[in-house]
């Protein structure tokens, strides 16, 4: 069956829409084509050379709020946290040593979630209520801050920036910083 689908459809059907006509209709934009009485409008054809009839413009699509429906309710019961007040969070630098220790203890290269879970266990008694808040993104603040701490460590050359996605790996410099107690 060596028939090209596009060629088959061109022969069997008329394509009345172009990309521009669909976008104009969906966005509720005016049609720049000549009016119905103009000969140029009657001469319009589709990609197969078939004449194309003018269509009335459709209303643009509406979201749930535009149709009078209420937006979906949040599934979680806890309110989403806004920006935390100064001094209410465990400093990000407090995440650095535990992250490097976990990586060193577990062979140097560890899946991200394993590191984050262990950081949570090690810092459990020190995390504040604000650290445990749920963010607007749906994540937990301290987990997000642990990932930012990893970024800072990578910027300092203590964690490998080139490690595969989802894997955190300590560098020789990170190991040295741990051993020397400079982190």
What is the number of helices? 7
Helix fraction, binned, reads: 25-40%
* Order of SSEs: HHHHEHHEH
Structural class: mainly alpha
Overall, the morphology is: elongated
Give the total of beta strands.
2
- Computed over alpha carbons, the radius of gyration is 29 Å
Give the DSSP E fraction (strand runs of 2 or more residues).
under 5%
Which spans of ≥5 residues are poorly predicted at pLDDT below 50?
Answer: 69-76
User: Roughly how many Å apart are the termini?
Assistant: 68 Å
Largest sheet: 2 strands, antiparallel
> Largest beta sheet: what is the strand line-up?
1-2
Q: Can you give me a brief rundown of this structure?
A:
The chain has 183 residues and is mainly α. It contains seven helices and two strands, in the order ααααβααβα. The chain has a two-stranded antiparallel ribbon with strand order 1-2.
How would you portray this structure in words?
There is one protein chain. The chain is mainly alpha-helical. It contains seven helices and two strands. The radius of gyration is 29 Å and the shape is elongated.
